[in-house]
Write a structure and sequence with these properties.
Blueprint (H helix, E strand, L loop, with lengths): L6 E3 L2 E2 L5 H12 L4 E3 H8 L8 H23 L5 H4 E4 L2 E4 L7 H17 L3 H12 L14 H27 L3 H14 L7 H11 L3 H14 L54 E3 L1
Helix pairs in contact: 1-3, 5-6, 5-7, 6-7, 8-9, 9-10
Length: 285
């Protein structure tokens, strides 16, 4: 997810040629192992309002995903059926990853180790772990699929996590007096991914033009102070739809029906950091 969206069962890609189906998969990945409400998926696909037969269209995309998951699982020798990997849950769907790996989960583990090392005063370890974390990024988060409001909100949160990691890494390296090495490594990191916002875009341009110049770092720190609160736009408002629910039978239930002509509200997913995304027999690249 820290770049172009990609999911694999072992070495086999899980991919659909239908763009909306890939959007559904990306949103399920972003909330892996949690229930994603059907109306959240609908809000991602049709933010301006539900089309006629929206429920049938959504079920088509779920069916397509189960088909490609099933084919990849069978080829990889997995015993889990597709409707267990992509499970129907009350009111929506859940991508059950079974504890597999993802680039986001590794990023969170490494940055957490880096932040703890900084708090403990181990700047060398902090710098190494944060540099390893940033090396996982290959481009803009969740790229390769169109972003509706739900995926855009996730992408903004991921970018915030990247910014924090970059800032803390720069702090650690400067406190070690490694400004020349930092200039070289920063050029590599920002070539792989750099948000088009100050001060990061300006830092990349300065490094490209001026190279290993101590004033590049000084200018960056000055710009960071000036734009700290403005470097990331506010998240789109997420409005949780509240529904009256009667008593339900325990066990599995099909997702709530989508009502044609009604605008789907946003997902009601937490506005805090993204959950960790282990990808069971699936793997995220």
């Amino acid at each position: 997810m820290l770049g172009e969206v990609a999911v694999r069962e072992g070495t086999l890609p899980i991919y659909s040629a239908e763009v909306p189906t890939r959007q559904v998969l990306a949103l399920l990945m972003a909330a892996a192992d949690r229930a994603v409400p059907a109306y959240a998926l609908a809000d991602e696909l049709w933010p301006r309002g539900l089309p006629d037969r929206a429920q049938d269209a959504l079920e088509h995309h779920i069916g397509r995903l189960r088909a490609v998951i099933g084919a990849a699982s069978q080829a990889a020798g997995s015993e889990r059926p597709a409707d267990q990997v992509l499970a129907s849950v009350p009111g929506g769907y859940r991508l059950d990853t079974g504890g597999g790996s993802s680039d986001l989960r590794t990023f969170e583990r490494l940055t957490g180790a880096g932040y703890r090392a900084m708090e403990a005063g181990d700047l060398h370890l902090a710098g190494r772990r944060l540099r390893e974390a940033l090396a996982l990024w290959t481009g803009a988060p969740l790229s390769g699929v169109p972003h509706g409001p739900q995926l855009q909100a996730h992408a903004v949160r991921l970018t915030r996590s990247w910014q924090r990691a970059v800032d803390r890494w720069i702090d650690a390296e400067l406190r070690l007096g490694r400004w020349r090495e930092l200039c070289v490594d920063l050029t590599q990191v920002l070539t792989r991914y750099c948000p088009d916002t100050p001060p990061y875009a300006r830092l990349k341009a300065d490094l490209d033009h001026r190279g290993q110049d101590r004033d590049v770092i000084r200018d960056y720190l000055r710009g960071r102070r000036e734009t700290r609160t403005a470097s990331v736009q506010p998240l789109p408002g997420l409005v949780a739809e509240r529904r009256e629910s009667g008593r339900r039978e325990p066990g599995r239930r099909e997702p709530d029906r989508l009502e044609p002509g009604r605008r789907a509200t946003a997902a009601g997913l937490e506005a805090g950091p993204l959950p960790r995304v282990p990808l069971g027999t699936l793997q995220s690249a």
